[in-house]
């Protein structure tokens, strides 16, 4: 749990809805899929999914600062999509800040497409975008 909390602090400001220990425990208890990227005992990043009847929603993805730009986020995202297909889900969806170009590039390279713009989605008033990827 401390490693996940550290990743949250490094990756998200208060206006990005960071997850607390209680949030993580809530999702784990409800058997929402949690993917960890780790090496030699160190947690490099995580992805948390929410199961929906026909889809898997990527709720949060974070990679430690020192491990960014090394393919960790891509591998986590691939794991999320593989699990969604294994579970028979039709698509993976997510929301991200409209201005978060680094994340949007990662998602677009993985085949996610703009579904809708979410005006004023974040507490600071910034818009978000909802992306989705159909699975075959």
TrEMBL record:
One of its GO terms (molecular function) is protein-N-terminal-alanine acetyltransferase activity. It holds the Pfam family Acetyltransf_1. It is an enzyme of class 2 (transferase). CDD domains: NAT_SF. GO terms for cellular component: cytoplasm. It comes from the Bacteria. Its EC number is 2.3.1.266. It catalyses: N-terminal L-alanyl-[ribosomal protein bS18] + acetyl-CoA = N-terminal N(alpha)-acetyl-L-alanyl-[ribosomal protein bS18] + CoA + H(+). Keywords: Acyltransferase, Cytoplasm, Transferase. The keyword Methyltransferase does not apply. It is found in: Cytoplasm. Residues 1-136 form the N-acetyltransferase domain. NCBIfam families: rimI. PANTHER family: ACETYLTRANSFERASE (PTHR43420), N-ACETYLTRANSFERASE DOMAIN-CONTAINING PROTEIN (PTHR43420:SF12). Acetylates the N-terminal alanine of ribosomal protein bS18. Belongs to the acetyltransferase family. RimI subfamily. This is [Ribosomal protein bS18]-alanine N-acetyltransferase. It comes from Wolinella succinogenes (strain ATCC 29543 / DSM 1740 / CCUG 13145 / JCM 31913 / LMG 7466 / NCTC 11488 / FDC 602W).
